[in-house]
Recover the amino acids of this structure.
């Protein structure tokens, strides 16, 4: 594939790229350009060719690593790996973390997962051709106790990406469920390798139910899980959503490095649907009720109980009561 030609088409942003410009930039004849366009078409890129105007990229193939990487060029995402099917993108990304020199800013994406992992040892439904399953490899300069910040950051980035790209009012339910219409539309699972005082390598996995239909969910999930298609009535472009999530994550990551945790906590609070609600939190055998009043600097949930006492919870499942 001719990456320079694809870059020119991507940078033209839906406008026409003149054959002459392409031939000058690539240092090849117009016939040579045409041959490269044919090769891109064979790879699934839909490219319109109009005499006297030039070439226009109409649509890239779904989840094309070359296209995704070109759209993200200039930032810190240096490598995008797309699998047709893996056990779990988090698992694949964790094995990259185990390499001698793991690379900050690698993204692992899959069309489907055979053993998608959810929080608290659960599985994550991962059928093919519908949803987004992606895991980011990061080498953050953070202490292990600050790791929850990355999960909060990923929740903020994902909710904002859904709002911008899909025009849908995504919210965050503590700790990091992405919610739409009162049901779960996505989730985040952070895993990591740590040294005693720093995170050596962290993997942040994001699963978004994009174009799944009600019938794709088993009956027991239909009351609690949803997809962007179900909520908006529109099929959504997985490439565009992945790009928006990664751009938004990168922007917030830069904010974290430059300004610390406060702006992320503030944005999390703004997008949270849990704060102010009466909730039931279940963790292990224990269940407690209270009003969710805030999160701590470390991302733990602060509950005010009926007797006025406060309780801080670090993990668990939240049910909104009202
Ligand atoms: C949750 O239970 O809410 C977290 C779900 C996280 C699912 C994503 S899909 C991509 C990545 N790979 C996995 O195996 N899990 C995460």
């Amino acid at each position: 594939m001719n990456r320079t030609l694809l870059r020119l088409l991507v940078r033209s942003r839906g406008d026409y790229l003149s054959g002459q410009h392409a031939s000058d930039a690539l240092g090849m004849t117009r016939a040579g350009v045409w041959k490269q366009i044919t090769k891109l078409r064979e790879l699934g890129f839909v490219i319109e060719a109009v005499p006297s105007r030039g070439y226009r990229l109409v649509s890239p193939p779904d989840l094309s690593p070359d296209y995704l990487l070109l759209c993200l060029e200039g930032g810190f995402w240096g490598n995008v790996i797309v699998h047709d099917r893996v056990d779990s993108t988090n698992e694949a990304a964790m094995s990259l973390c185990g390499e001698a020199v793991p690379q900050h800013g690698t993204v692992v994406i899959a069309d489907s997962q055979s053993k998608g992992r959810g929080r608290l040892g659960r599985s994550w439904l991962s059928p093919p051709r519908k949803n987004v399953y992606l895991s980011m490899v990061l080498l953050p300069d953070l202490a292990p106790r600050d790791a929850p910040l990355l999960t909060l950051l990923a929740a903020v980035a994902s909710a904002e990406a859904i709002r911008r790209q899909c025009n849908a009012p995504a919210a965050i339910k503590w700790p990091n469920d992405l919610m739409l219409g009162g049901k779960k539309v996505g989730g985040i699972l952070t895993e990591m390798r740590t040294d005693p005082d720093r995170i050596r390598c962290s993997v942040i996995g994001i699963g978004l139910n994009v174009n799944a239909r009600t019938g794709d969910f088993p009956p027991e999930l239909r009351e609690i899980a949803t997809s962007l298609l179900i909520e908006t009535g529109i099929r959504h472009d997985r490439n565009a959503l992945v790009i928006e999530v990664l751009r938004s994550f990168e922007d917030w990551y830069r904010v974290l490095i430059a300004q610390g945790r406060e702006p992320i906590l503030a944005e999390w609070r703004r997008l949270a649907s849990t704060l102010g609600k009466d909730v039931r939190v279940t963790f292990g055998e224990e269940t407690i009720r209270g009003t969710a009043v805030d999160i701590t600097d470390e991302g733990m949930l602060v509950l005010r109980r009926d007797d006025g006492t406060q309780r801080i919870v670090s993990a668990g499942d939240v049910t909104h009561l009202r």
Observations:
- The first strand starts at residue 46 and ends at 50.
